[in-house]
Amino acid sequence: MPKIIVLPHEELCPDGAVLSAEAGETVLDVALKNGIEIEHACEKSCACTTCHVIIREGFDSLDESDELEDDMLDKAWGLEPESRLGCQAKVTDEDLVVEIPKYTLNHAAEDH
């Protein structure tokens, strides 16, 4: 069973975590079901960047991002070559090391 190693994040996961995942689950779903409340303003529809994560290890095991995800990622704060949207990055049979960026852009929340 693949694992997702979440690097420490000051607010969401201060000590980091090692999470069991099923192949086909998204990084976001695995985090949420384990109590790591990564924001997901568009309800996992690939319409925002609030679930932006950086895949530090295992990036090549993921399916390639599609054009819609790439267009969204272009708007993400702190974009890196290994950036993915957590709602789109599906676990395969390899372990992943994931970093949750310190900041996200949530245009919906900023409008309030």
Structure description:
There is one protein chain. The chain is α+β, with helices and mostly antiparallel strands and 112 residues long. The protein has one domain: Roll (Ubiquitin-like (UB roll)). It has 3 helices and 5 strands, in the order E-E-H-E-H-E-E-H. Strands 2-1-5-3-4 form a 5-stranded mixed beta sheet. The longest helix is centred in the first third of the chain and has 7 residues. The chain is globular and about 30 Å long. The protein starts with a strand and ends with a helix.
Short recap of the structure:
With 112 residues, this protein is of the alpha+beta class. It has three helices and five strands; from the N terminus they run ββαβαββα. A five-stranded mixed beta sheet has the order 2-1-5-3-4.
Question: What layout of secondary structure does this protein have?
Answer:
Blueprint: E1 3-6, E2 17-20, H1 27-33, E3 52-57, H2 67-73, E4 83-85, E5 96-99, H3 107-110
Parallel strand pairs: 1-5
Antiparallel strand pairs: 1-2, 3-4, 3-5
Pfam families: Fer2
Cofactor: [2Fe-2S] cluster
GO molecular function: 2 iron, 2 sulfur cluster binding; electron transfer activity; metal ion binding
